[in-house]
Amino acid sequence: MSSIKRLKKDINYIFGDIIDEVNIKRILKPEITDEQAEKLIEEAVAAYENFYQKIHQGRKAGNKKSYFKDLTAEINKAVEDLTKKIEAM
Predict the structure, then answer these.
(1) Which end of the chain, N or C, is surrounded by fewer C-beta atoms within 10 Å?
(2) What is the CA radius of gyration of the chain?
(3) What residue ranges do the domains of the chain occupy?
(4) How far apart are alpha carbons 72 and 55 in whole angstroms?
């Protein structure tokens, strides 16, 4: 299991890239409305805040290894879902 500090950095990096990808897609495809892009950005920010909060809650978890393994799987699923939405834009 990687450290909590590393997990926080990974989340910052991943969700920052997702937001950048939405902005790039908005620039390259003029048919994408600002509302569509903003909705995805807001969804990415909400997911980021949710996972960041769950990291802090995990410090009090009884079985930390299992908690953070499940959290990592949840993060990967959220990133996959957001990526699919970006590709569908």
Answers:
(1) N
(2) 15
(3) 4-88
(4) 10
Say yes or no to pLDDT of 88 above 90: no
Q: Residue for token digits 């299992």? A: 66
Report whether 25 contacts 37 (CB < 8 A).
yes
Q: 59-88 burial by CB neighbour count: b if 16+ within 10 A, else e?
A: eeeeeeeebbeebeeebeebbeebeebbee
pLDDT tens, residue by residue, 23-81: 999 888 888 888 888 999 999 999 999 998 988 887 777 787 888 888 889 999 999 99
Residue 5, C-beta contacts closer than 8 angstroms, at least 6 positions apart: none
The residue type of 19 is I
Sequence-ordered strand ranges (E) for the chain:
none
